[in-house]
Amino acid sequence: MAQAILLTGQERRRRWSPDERLEILGAAFAPGANVSEVARRFDISTGLLYTWRRQALSVKDGPAFVPATVLDVPGNGYGNAATIVVEFANGIKVRIASGAPCELAAAVMRALK
């Protein structure tokens, strides 16, 4: 006689929407985040979370550097309080005083490219 096994309970395979994945990855990539703690909080395996992290890091949706146009506007030095802030995809921020010479701003952008 053949035997049948009846599995009761909730199915463990879960479908995660793109928004849910982004929320989980945001928590996993947060500064000081512990992947194991994030996995427990969202009831997800650490292996799957590491897979998602690896996939997210390997995605190349386009250039990581956006070209900047430097306008030659006459100024009187660094006395202006306004600044230009450039934030790169890896989280690095560069602040340049708006009164800085155009050559300096261009050199900084070329060096970071």
TrEMBL record:
<keyword id="KW-0614">Plasmid</keyword>
<dbReference type="InterPro" id="IPR002514">
    <property type="entry name" value="Transposase_8"/>
</dbReference>
<dbReference type="InterPro" id="IPR036388">
    <property type="entry name" value="WH-like_DNA-bd_sf"/>
</dbReference>
<dbReference type="InterPro" id="IPR010921">
    <property type="entry name" value="Trp_repressor/repl_initiator"/>
</dbReference>
<dbReference type="Pfam" id="PF01527">
    <property type="entry name" value="HTH_Tnp_1"/>
</dbReference>
<dbReference type="GO" id="GO:0043565">
    <property type="term" value="F:sequence-specific DNA binding"/>
</dbReference>
<dbReference type="GO" id="GO:0006313">
    <property type="term" value="P:DNA transposition"/>
</dbReference>
<protein>
    <recommendedName>
        <fullName>Transposase</fullName>
    </recommendedName>
</protein>
<dbReference type="GO" id="GO:0004803">
    <property type="term" value="F:transposase activity"/>
</dbReference>
